Amino acid sequence: MVVAFDILFLLPVFILGGILLLFGVIVLLGRWRGGKYLKPLVMQLQKIPFMERWMQRASRAALEKQNPELASAVSKIERSGAMSDPLAAQRAMSKLTSAERKAYIEAAGEQGPGPTNRAERRRLERAKRRSR
Q: For each of the chain's 132 residues, which pLDDT tens digit applies?
């Protein structure tokens, strides 16, 4: 009887310990080798609908803190449905304020066009590994 009471009393401690261990593993995977092993885990979690919404909210909140103009521009462009239609993208860009347009263009310029083929991707990966 006393042993069962002690285990039930410690159940919240075990649950909190498990949650802390889970967060510790996530932080460790995020720090180790630049998050190489965390990315597949996050991609799998995004397939769960409520996790995808949580990640989008967190991403938007971080963007609003870092660059409010860019966050406003992205939300306006997403609302217009301009992600797939170039004509809708032009209309959405014309509705942005000058500060929003400038922030959006700067962000798009930072991303730049990605590597076009496998050889170019490998060359960029090798250069990135050498720079570490």
A: 556 677 788 889 999 999 999 999 988 988 888 888 888 888 888 898 898 899 889 999 999 999 999 999 988 888 887 777 778 888 888 889 999 999 988 888 777 666 678 888 888 888 878 776
Alpha helices in 32-97 (DSSP H): 39-45, 49-66, 68-80, 86-94
- Structure tokens that stand for 31 in this block: 């720090």
Question: Residues 16, 20, 25, CA angle at the centre, nearest 5°?
Answer: 150
CB under 8 Å to 79, separation ≥6 — which residues? none
Torsion of CA 85, 91, 94, 97, to 10 degrees: -80
